Amino acid sequence: MLxxxxxxxxxxxxxxxxxxxxxxxxxxxxxxxxxxALGATPGEVGRLVVRQGMVLPVVxxxxxxxxAFPAVGAMRGLLYGVSATDPRVFGSVLLGLLSIAVLATLIxxxxxxxxxxxxxxxxx
Length: 124
Known about the structure:
Blueprint: H1 2-27, H2 29-37, H3 42-53, H4 55-75, H5 87-113, H6 117-122
């Protein structure tokens, strides 16, 4: 049951990150079109979107990691075969969550790189 809720929370978090970044890309279509028209490469635009989309997930991971250490006392009874403060577990969880956040930002970033500057500037 705990694993099912964890997977559901992970899916909801990834969907939320995707939604926020996709909304930001949609709102900034005109700006992205202008950047591309002025000579920005699609790779630069994609990196910009990913970098801006990863700010909140990284802050959340740092805050969550700091607050997780005091909370491990409540989890000790649920863990079998691993220490409550095992650095490999903390690291792998952080790396997994960071990977999910990167994947959730890559889809809107890829869409941003395909913006046609002429269409983006004429729309509004």
